[in-house]
Design a protein that fits this description.
12 strands; single chain; 42% helix; elongated; Heat Shock Protein 90; Beta-Lactamase; alpha+beta; 22% strand; 379 residues; 5-stranded mixed β-sheet
Length: 379
């Protein structure tokens, strides 16, 4: 016959056994904060006894660099009858210290007086060590980024000087030999000037790439009317005669860091113009739609487009699909856009243009960017 009797209600021994099986160190104190009970995990970790730990004896296993602060904060909590929490290292039975997140809550009687304090200590040593490693990596990364930007600046500045000299020299030669240069020589002169300008552009783009998406740049967030912004960019990028840039009425006003958003849109519009196979009759459409706190911008052109197998490649540095002498620019435009977008918490991807012609570049941007964006002890 099966036993259908109801289980009995838990008793004091059940709760004591439950407390002893907790992974945390647990304790109970009287109204004044004198601890009179610890669970077995406390004794296992510290290697102590109740006789040595009761009352305020727990101070003996605290790190000397932290004990004064801990005593001050927990005493203030006990006196005010308010919950307490803190983090600090405790010494184990092996003499090594481990970090703990500690909390205590008061228990009140019917008249609102504190009669007990129930506390726990949770081992967070692994988390603290990970935080320390991440903090050190962040410092190293910031230093590396600063060094790379300094290198890019110095390279840009120092290399531009001789390039300007070459460009000036070509100009002087053309002036001195005006009217006597053969067709081939004049063509080579133009080619030389073109390559000087290309190298200057490459140096500028390298500097822009090194600065794009820097995590330590503090942006100013303002209300940005993106339709007006695109209309301003239409003038700024100086499209060739016959080329049309259309700003959709769906373009919203959003709270954003204007400078990186402007640079991203300018790069995409300029890129579409630069690579169009019929710029005298080309079009770029800029649309947007908001969803789930993000705005998805779409910059679409009706140029030659990019074969699907090459679309991920174009987000890399120095990537062009045609020989460099056949196209202006350094191949850095989309790489810079990718860094700018990802710095703001968005993503960027490519898709087919309209009616199978051209290319659409999609990128997301926060609708309200203003909302988005160790004490020395090594345990």
């Amino acid at each position: 016959m099966s036993d259908t009797s109801k289980p009995t209600a838990p008793n004091a021994a059940d709760f004591r056994n439950l407390a002893d099986t907790l992974p945390q160190l647990a304790w109970i104190a009287d109204a004044n904060g004198n601890i009179f009970w610890y669970n077995e995990r406390w004794y296992e970790f510290t290697g102590t006894t109740l006789a040595s730990m009761k009352g305020w004896g727990w101070k003996a296993v605290h790190h000397p660099d932290h004990i004064d602060r801990v005593v001050k904060r927990i005493s203030e909590a006990f006196a005010a009858g308010k919950p307490w929490n803190d983090t600090f290292p405790l010494r184990g039975a092996d003499g090594a210290y481990r970090w703990f997140l500690s909390r205590a809550n008061p228990f009140f009687d019917d008249e609102g007086r504190v009669v007990r304090w129930y506390g726990t200590n949770t081992d967070i040593t692994d988390r603290k060590r990970m935080e320390g490693r991440l903090a050190r990596h962040a410092v190293d990364l910031r230093r590396t980024n600063e060094e790379l930007e300094q290198f890019a600046y110095v390279a840009s500045h120092d290399l531009k000087a001789p390039l300007r000299g070459i460009e000036n020299l070509v100009g002087w030669i053309e002036e001195d030999l005006e009217g006597s240069l053969t067709g081939d020589v004049q063509t080579n002169m133009e080619l030389l000037k073109s390559r000087v300008r290309r190298l200057e552009s490459l140096l500028d783009d390298l500097l822009a790439y090194s600065r794009a998406g820097r995590a330590d740049v503090a942006f100013t967030f303002t209300e940005v009317n993106t339709k007006a912004l695109v209309e301003d960019l239409t003038v700024m990028v100086s499209p060739p005669e016959g080329f049309e840039i259309v700003a959709s009425d769906t373009l919203p006003t959003l709270s954003a860091a204007k400078a990186p958003l402007t640079q991203a849109l300018q790069n995409l519009i300029g890129n579409a113009i630069k690579h169009h196979d019929n710029p005298g009759n080309g079009h770029v459409w800029v649309d947007a739609q908001a969803s789930a706190g993000m705005v998805e911008f779409v910059v679409t052109d009706d140029g030659a487009g990019i074969p699907e197998q090459f679309r991920e490649r174009v987000f890399g540095m120095f990537q062009t699909l045609r020989p460099r002498d056949e196209v202006e620019g350094s191949g850095m435009g989309l790489a810079i856009v990718k860094k700018l977008v990802e710095r703001q918490g968005g993503k960027v991807w490519l898709a087919e243009g309209r009616e199978g012609r051209g290319l659409s570049v999609h990128f997301t941007w926060p609708q309200d960017g203003a909302k988005g964006v160790s004490d020395g002890f090594d345990g």
